[in-house]
Amino acid sequence: MKPWLALLKLRITIASTVTTVVGYAMARGMLDSPLVLVTGGIFLQACGAAALNQVQDSNVDAKMARTATRPIPSGRVPRGAALVYSLVLLGLGSVILGQVSWAAALLGLSAAVVYNGIYTPMKRVSPFAALPGSLIGALPPVVGWVAAGGYLGDPTIHLVAFFFFLWQIPHFWLLLLYYEQDYQDGGMPSLFDRFDRRQIARLTFLWIAAVCVAALLLPMVKVFDHPAYAYVVAAAGLGVVLRAIALLRADTGIQKTFARVCRIRFMEINTFALIVSVALVVDGLV
Predict the structure, then answer these.
(1) Does residue 95 surpass a pLDDT of 80?
(2) pLDDT recorded at residue 189
(3) pLDDT tens, residue by residue, 29-61
(4) What's the rounded mean pLDDT across residues 244-264?
(5) Burial class (CB in 10 A: 0-12, 13-18, 19+), 190
(6) What's the pTM value of the predicted model, to 2 decimals?
(7) What is the mean pLDDT of residues 262-279?
């Protein structure tokens, strides 16, 4: 089963499921039984989209050391079987999520459309594919919000989705900086076609700062009912920005050292997104 599980990119799909819980808890104010169907449905949809992405990228994956051992390029899973597998997961997830809300199910499918229909083809022709691709991270909390009966036009969920949209961009670019050689080996367009390493580091720092500013907007517009959680988010955001200054000071000429700096920043920005998620969930439940 390991090759079939590896198709699912579980770290990414679990993250999508967690942010779906954020939207659900905010709108519902409790974690009740329908959440089981909601999380199960979005998880299977995300797994299907992840597997389909590996089908689409199998030829490129074969050229990069980081991805050459994935199930399809390594020959452990036939490409046709992986395609059927991904479509079954997408369909099953949609049906399960539709038992609670077909609007939520359609929003979940729209995330797959963005991921597989826009981002994946676009990254072969443009170094800026991460910008529209970041919608992938913005949609899961909206799915949870709508599934819990929240109004789609509510500005509260728009701000939360905006935060997760911004978070995706430095998430992508820090990976690019860390796996620079792999991206070059794969022949994919990247920011390195337009900028040098130091310029990309500066751009990434600005986006990290923007993520933290977006998090500060949440308490300012009273997304949090309890000020204590807002202070936690503000303190964590300030810490992330201060530590991200290391990107500006790092010696970009020493790839190994610079890659380590990028990896640490990658873990920190993801931890910050988790802190914001937990704070929103707890605030919604208390």
Answers:
(1) yes
(2) 84
(3) 999 999 999 999 999 999 999 999 999 999 888
(4) 89
(5) buried
(6) 0.91
(7) 95
Give per-residue pLDDT as tens, 101-137: 999 999 999 999 999 999 999 988 898 988 888 999 8
- Cα within 13 Å of Cα(110), Cβ side: 15
Closest CA to 250 of 264, 239, 237, 238: 264
CA gap 278, 259 in Å, rounded: 29
Separation CA 69–CA 106 (nearest Å): 33
Answer positive or negative: Cα dihedral of 7, 9, 14, 20: negative
Structure tokens at 100: 């609670």
Tokens of 274: 């988790």
- Tokens 């959680």 correspond to 229
Residue 78: strand, helix, or coil: coil
- Looking at residue 80, its amino acid is G
Contact 35, 24 (CB under 8 A): yes
Nearest to 225 by CA among 29, 39, 57, 41: 29
For residue 219, pLDDT over 90 is answered with no
Amino acid at 76: R
CA neighbours within 13 Å on the CB side: how many for 179?
17
The CA distances from residue 262 to 132, 175, 239, 242, in Å, are: 23, 8, 16, 14
How many alpha carbons fall within 13 Å on the CB side of residue 15? 21
Backbone angles phi, psi at 254, to 5 degrees: -105, 100
